[in-house]
Amino acid sequence: MDELIFPILTETDVRLPLYLTSVGHWDHQERMARPEGFPDYQWLQVQSGEGELTVGGRRYVVRAGQAMCLFPHEAHSYGPLSKRWELTWAAFGGNLSGELLAQAGIAQSGVYSTTDRELLLSHLRSLLGCAMSGRPFSGIESSKLLYQFLLDLMKSVYVSSPSAEQNYSRLRPVLDYIERNAHRPIAIGELAAEAGVSPQHLCALFRQTIKMRPIEYVNRQRVNRSKELMIRDPGLKMQDIAALVGFESPSYFGSVFKKMEGVSPEQFRRMHRTH
Question: 157: which residues sit within 8 A by CB, 6+ positions away?
């Protein structure tokens, strides 16, 4: 069934970092041409059939499992190539929109393949239901749902490289290995062997997926464990804590801790002292 909802936006809603401007579902999307573009960001998820998109001087074929992402005020046109072209879509604005899309690897208008179409459709249906409800504060609720949707794009979109979800799957054995062995020195070669890749490739996977180098991730694990020990056992000396969580020396522990937390281990302990 065709559905189209334009939610009522209050002054408070449009000041949110994300807000929904329209949402809907077409059993069959008709041809659409916008030489002056559209004022908001759009995500159009294809459920069935095949269509085409022209944007930025390029023509794309769009199939089920793919989506069109359109940036504001950019000329575009799209239309069906099959008898039925079913779409569910949302349009949105707010100063966080472009930043969250960029974090998912979406830097321009175009066609994007998705690894979990049902997850994204579930989010879009929730946005549609919220917009249709007419409940008080539905604008705020839609903003929360929109944020969840855009975060899940980071896991579910193919760009020029594998999706974050694929990279996390490849890194999972490494992350588990770190969890089990962070209390002792760990060589980069050990971690690479767990993933079955070279050390250089492992570093690239970490930077691409977790936005830090492997040793940074290991040290973050160690620092978090040290904080737990400081609070749980106030009598432990810092040098003992450093050794228990895998740091080679108390001085290195102190410098890493301060760089990550902005305070020394002793200052952190004082801030969390209960008596």
Answer: 104, 105, 106, 112, 113, 114, 115, 163
User: Which residue carries 């604005």 as its tokens?
Assistant: 93
In CATH, 3-156 is 2.60.120.280? yes
Instruction: Answer whether 159's CB lies under 8 Å from 209's CB.
Output: no
pLDDT of residue 116: 82
Please tell me the predicted confidence (pLDDT) of residue 135. 76
161 touches 208 (CB < 8 A): yes
Q: Over 70: is that where the pLDDT of 163 sits?
A: no
DSSP assignments along 203-240, one per residue: HHHHHHHTSS-HHHHHHHHHHHHHHHHHHH-TTS-HHH
Domain ranges of the chain: 3-156, 164-271
Query: Do the beta carbons of residue 225 and residue 236 sit within 8 Å?
Result: no
Tokens 């085409």 belong to: 52
CATH hierarchy code of domain 164-271: 1.10.10.60
24 CB burial (10 A radius; 0-12, 13-18, 19+): buried
